[in-house]
Design brief:
single chain, 155 residues, 6-stranded antiparallel sheet, 1 helix, 5% helix, 5-stranded antiparallel sheet
Length: 155
């Protein structure tokens, strides 16, 4: 008597990923840049490589990410920034779409968070991308406390 097929066991196992970055990665101007969360704390299925997480098991996933730009005065009123979750290269969620709030020489940190509950298929490729339109490249703040990604299969 068979209790469960291998596929059933696979569908019920824990899938979890936790990583951050303190590398101060450069975010190009006027384009989406994939964030590489290179400091991997936990990757249950060894599914992450250079900014891309490949879904190992079809299911419902909770994705959370936070990024913060290095202190800058380069973002002025009307200049846009946002963070997105892309699945297989296409935007699935965009959050923290915002514009610079002042035109002055004061340096400010800009942080953005994104969270989504998504139905994903085995083999889907998940990336977190940052868009900023300040007129030049900007770096992520070089502290892992502010730049993180976690992905967890909940069902």
């Amino acid at each position: 008597h068979k209790v469960a097929s291998p596929q059933t066991i696979l569908e019920n196992e824990t899938v979890a990923f936790i990583a951050d970055t303190n590398a101060g990665q450069s975010m190009a101007n006027a384009s989406s840049t994939i964030v590489d969360f290179e400091d991997v704390e936990h990757d249950s299925h060894n599914a992450y490589n250079a900014g891309t997480y490949t879904i190992p098991v079809t299911g419902l996933y909770k994705i959370n990410s936070s990024v913060m730009l290095e202190s800058t005065s380069a973002i002025d009123i009307g200049e846009v920034m946002y963070v997105s979750i892309k699945i297989n290269g296409s935007s699935k969620r965009i959050q923290n779409y915002r514009e610079g709030d002042v035109s002055d020489s004061d340096n400010k940190h800009y942080s953005m968070q994104i969270s989504a509950l998504l139905s994903l298929n085995k083999g889907d490729e998940v990336t977190i991308q940052v868009y900023q339109g300040s007129g030049g490249s900007l770096d992520l703040f070089n502290s892992s406390q502010y730049n993180s990604l976690d992905i967890h299969k909940i069902k």
